[in-house]
Amino acid sequence: MSVRGGSDVRDRENNRNMTSKETVRVTYKGKEIELPVLHGTDGPDVVDIAPLNKELGLFTYDPGFKATASCRSELTFIDGKKGILRYRGYPIEQLAEHGNYLETCYLLLYGELPNQQQYDEFNDKITRHTMLHEQMMRFYQGFRRDAHPMAIMVGVFGALSSFHHSSINVTDDKGRDISSIRMLAKMPTIAAYAYKYAKGQPFIYPRNELYYTSNFLRMCFSVPTEDWHEDPVLSRALDKIFILHADHEQNASTSTVRLASSSGANPYACVAAGIVSLWGPAHGGANEAALKMLMEIGSVKRIPAYLERAKDKNDPFRLMGFGHRVYKNYDPRARVMQKVCHEVLEHLGIEDPLLEVAMELERIALEDDYFKSRNLYPNIDFYSGITLRALGFPTSMFTVLFAVARTVGWVAQWREMIEDPEQKIGRPRQLYVGPEKRDYIPMDQR
Ligand code: CMC
Question: What is the rounded CA–CA span in Å between residue 285 and residue 35?
Fold first, then answer.
């Protein structure tokens, strides 16, 4: 097979999801076909490979989807080479600096930043769906008291599907909207109760007068004997952290949610599948793993030994919070996160020795040929652990916080997929490398 690009001038007059005049010609066993090239509003062009199978009987092979666009999306744009992240066109730095998490949720779900009235209505709807059914509370008692809170999240969030199953019609706009509101509203309550259960403390009901992030902090840190008092600097820091995590294009957990729901399955159960995927240390679990790694390194003196381990191909150890499939430059979220980390520690007057270890580790790694040649930079998880610890969360809750913030991304991507007229059940193919046909052998002859 040979592949070469066509040469026609590109038509960008209407540059949203358009087929360009360029094509890619493919020759296989003497037959030549042209594959259409699609161009989006930004980012690399994409080859439509459907004719490869229809006309040449070929599939493509791309383990880990390193070169595959699985869908069209208007939500999030990443330029990994330049270190750019935008939600619906808005740079992440601007949203984190000037916006709040709820308006970011509105933006992701509905396409535009809300005006005051839209914001108030949205806030009101979310606020009025934060309570869990009393029967839901009983699910927690079934978990071992030392269960990882992510295990509890998977189970309890999935259990929401049993409370909202027959009532959901995913093909109906209103049905999708109310499910979206419920998922966003209930996720912090479920997460706070996972924390409370592990602590052996009573669940704290949500309060309607509190803003989303403050309500979450109160549900985590209030106890019946002493109410939680808001520290606006810390609430704002968590809100920024939530904005940074809100969506991230077609990552593993989001693709999991899309694939699971492409069969028309219950969205609560599909988001539970997303939570499972997020849990892994190569994805959202990296924030917990990164802090544990910094604690294990413990002091600046020990950094070189750990860097050597990270470079050794025979050692499974990797520098957690470093590297990214898409960013081959500094992760723009990590930059904001580092700033938030300094703000929080300074505000609380904490001198965390792990911050010194992290900064020195970053400095040495960024000068090292191994990391430079592979474009490995700190990602969002590198500084988030130190920040979340300073906010009072145990390491086991770090990925849970990621899940709370990412819920809107999963939900917005689910909606986009259901509303996409090109949507089909996700069904990848394979390169079969197993045995060729052989005949059954009776057991006494094997
Ligand atoms: N430490 C040491 N070497 C690394 C690291 C690392 N953290 N990350 C990548 N490499 C090396 C890797 O060994 C490979 O080397 P070589 O070319 O010699 O075989 C090269 O860099 C390319 O890595 P890869 O594994 O092919 O890249 P990938 O795109 O499949 O993996 C990643 C991306 C994020 C899973 C990986 O960088 C990693 O495991 N990082 C640590 C975990 C982490 O911090 N994850 C959080 C990602 S950001 C949060 C989120 O959005 O989920």
Answer: 39
Element (H, E) at 78: strand 76-79
Say how many residues make up the chain: 446
Task: Give just the sign of the alpha carbon dihedral 145, 147, 151, 153.
Answer: positive
Residue 145 near residue 200, CB atoms below 8 Å = yes
Beta-sheet strand order (sheet of 31-39): 2-5, 18-28, 31-39, 46-47
Which atom in ligand 1 lies closest to the alpha carbon of residue 278? 52
Map tokens 């493509």 to a residue.
60
374: CA distance to ligand 1 center in Å? 9
Cβ-based neighbours of 169, under 8 Å, separated by 6 or more: 175
Atom of ligand 1 nearest to the CA of 318: 1
| 302: Cβ contacts below 8 Å, ≥ 6 apart | none
Q: Which amino acid is at 446?
A: R
Which residue puts its alpha carbon closest to atom 24 of ligand 1? 325
| Pairwise CA distance, residues 153 & 133, whole Å | 16
Closest by Cα among 77, 86, 9 to 40: 77
Lining residues, ligand 1, CB within 6 Å? 64, 248, 251, 282-284, 286, 310, 318-325, 374, 376, 379-381
The catalytically annotated residue of 324, 342, 347, 439 is: 324
Task: Give residue 325 CA to ligand 1 midpoint distance, Å.
Answer: 7
Query: pLDDT for 70-128, tens place per residue?
Result: 999 999 999 999 999 999 999 999 999 999 999 999 999 999 999 999 999 999 999 99
Active site residue 177: no
Residue-wise DSSP of 102-131: HHHHHHHHHSS---HHHHHHHHHHHHTT-P
Per residue in 313-372, pLDDT tens?
999 999 999 999 999 999 999 999 999 999 999 999 999 999 999 999 999 999 999 999
Q: Shortest CA distance to 154 belongs to which of 30, 43, 234, 270?
A: 270
